[in-house]
Amino acid sequence: MNWEMLAAVGQLAAVVIGIPSFVYLAIQIREQTRERRHAAINTLAGQWGELVKSLSDSSEFSAIYLRGLQSFSELDPVSKVRLSAFLGRFFKNFEGMYFYRRDGVLGASLWEEIERTMKDLLAYPGTRQWWETRKHWHTDEFAGVVDEIIAQGHEPKAYATYNLRQIPRA
Hints:
Layout: H1 3-57, H2 59-70, H3 77-102, H4 108-122, H5 125-134, H6 140-151
């Protein structure tokens, strides 16, 4: 055996050993990506649940929320602060989900669900009034997404079957 033959055998051995290593590495990276996606979605779902829980835990805040959707500007200052804090958290959650979607972590069907929720909320005049006071707290990219939804002019239907005239005043 000469040196060229030994070099060829060495290269063949490197290929035989190297290819399975690359396949294994690719599988590991793919699995880590999947786990990261699940962790991100679980975190967002937990945050979402906490936000919704604040509505169900307090009838007083639920009334503020429903009145504020109709007109943020007509709320008293304390109610404005409470609703603004809630919507601020809600929209920061939406923003996080938007960037997860943009970066490929969140699937299209989940983003469509989130976008429908945003459309429902942004159809109400009070939410749009609030947005004008706080849009500067968000990235320009996400603000553009929200502004585009507002420009579509959706009809407020999320609470259409509720008799909003019966909301107790603070």
